[in-house]
Amino acid sequence: MNVIVVAAECAPWSKTGGLGDVAGSLPKALARRGHRVMVVAPRYGNYAEPQDIGVRKRYKVDGQDIEVTYFQTYIDGVDFVFIESPLFRHIEGDIYGGSRLDILKRMMLFCKAAVEVPWYVPCGGVCYGDGNLVFIANDWHTALLPVYLKAYYRDNGLMEFTRSILVIHNIAHQGRGPVDDFLHVDLPGHYIDLFKLHDPVGGEHFNIFAAGLKAADRVVTVSHGYSWELKTSEGGWGLHNIIKENDWKFSGIVNGIDTKEWNPLFDVHLTSDGYTNYSLETLHTGKPQCKAALQKELGLPVQPDVPLIGFIGRLDQQKGVDLIAEAVPWMMDQNVQLVMLGTGRQDLEKMLRQFENQYHDKIRGWVGFSVKMAHRITAGSDILLMPSRFEPCGLNQLYAMMYGTVPVVHAVGGLRDTVQPFDPFHESGLGWTFDCAEASKLIHALGNCLWTYREYKNSWEGLQRRGMTQDLSWDHAAEKYEEVLVAAKYQW
Ligand code: ADP
Question: Where is the Glycosyl transferase family domain positioned along the sequence (predicted)?
Fold first, then answer.
């Protein structure tokens, strides 16, 4: 098949979270299965590999005529196409920033340009065209694409056999606004019904995700747990009824990980500053070396036997950073070290810095977005904490397990799917889970984890070994995506 993945971010060029990782790696796995695959993303900065291919197009956005330029490169079997426009330029540090209308205009332009890529952008000299073509759009930012495909093409007897899949990575962000926002999106009047949603909090409003979910031929979300939660009023954030009505086209597929990028044996961030690459065979020496290097780099006392606990993620309500904060006084009595890496809400960033000042010999709060530090913390920590209130899939717990770092997680969404709780009687499981987003539950789970770390070395090694030997690659997930591609195309 010809597959075009359209996403607002794509690692390594742009990334604020899991979506960037998925857009960078799922396409490669689909290409390995023999499909012709392209990724389309905005060009936020000057990227090294993609070249201007000399194609210019103009699109109307809110009455303004805007020129876009297409850049292209081919890596690991995938065509990467970047759309350049003044609206995207120089916002790489804040790609979802600006006013509601600014973001809406950016995403409109992006979707209008992306839906035409198969006609105007030659890859390897040949445009994709509409033969056997399926678009995979991601989250609300590109949820207009299935709508434009329908309104501009299929309603007019064009691209009749092209299909679209919309992937929900996080339902909490939906592109909501007043109903009048419809006037901006450049669609025939009767399309307004797709966007209108009545919300108990805000009343009737305009909702881009709602329109995308209705217009897409298939909908995927990033874990089984989350696909269930999305149908509940707590988990669906107002869209649960639409998801329930569209259940027939809905599937949950757990994300994979890029096993080249996130592999302790090949990790390029572990080749200097005292870190070292390691595998299951060299875990005994390699991981302690990484732990010592991390302690040294962070200026923490280098203590091999003191458990080092890591947290990596956006600092917001979703990630449960406040639960960790509540548990900090207890943790500080346990002779542990804690390192937290994140950016986000200013009050939480301030809190991280305060913890570091208050407990300078035990806590480091690294405020910033550093891919290198994310890799080093994953390798050097013994334990990774993920107390997320909700977590569609979660990638950090998967990375942690690949590095022999044991996860302690709130059993929700993808975390529940991927971290089977440790069972000391059968020596099975992958980490510790707690069933309610409360500090006392986190403390209970972490307490058991620390006890096992200190007293039951064999059990600990078993947890590490089971984590490291899982097949977490994209290959399995890509097979599942392929089933959805086929269903979108042929099962009606
Ligand atoms: P989400 O997409 O909800 O943010 P995920 O766990 O799915 O959460 O993915 C988060 C991704 O972003 C991971 O690759 C993680 O390592 C990365 N990440 C999050 N915060 C930071 C940060 N401050 N520095 C570097 N990488 C980060």
Answer: 304-423
Residue with CA closest to ligand 1 atom 2:
18
Query: Hunting for tokens 């389309």 — which residue is that?
Result: 40
Region for 313 from its dihedrals, namely left if φ exceeds 0, alpha if ψ lies in -120 to 50, beta otherwise:
left
Q: Which atom of ligand 1 is nearest to the CA of 366?
A: 23
Q: Which residues contact 99 (CB under 8 A, 6 or more apart)?
A: none
Give 373 Cα–ligand 1 centroid separation in angstroms: 11
* The model's pTM: 0.94
Q: Which residue has a Cα nearest atom 17 of ligand 1?
A: 17
Cα(20) to centroid of ligand 1, in Å? 9
Burial class (CB in 10 A: 0-12, 13-18, 19+), 400: buried
CA distance 183 to 382: 53
Q: How far is the CA of 8 from the CAs of 96, 170, 192, 243, 433, in angstroms?
A: 9, 13, 24, 23, 32
Task: Spell out the domains of the chain, with CATH numbers in brackets.
Answer: 2-256+475-490 (3.40.50.2000), 268-470 (3.40.50.2000)
What lines the ligand 1 site, CB under 6 Å?
17-19, 21, 312-314, 341-343, 369-371, 374, 393-396
Mean pLDDT of each 10-residue bin along the chain, 492 residues long: 98 95 97 98 96 96 96 98 96 94 97 98 96 97 98 96 97 96 97 93 92 98 97 95 97 95 97 98 98 98 98 96 97 97 97 97 97 98 98 98 98 98 97 97 98 98 98 96 96 74
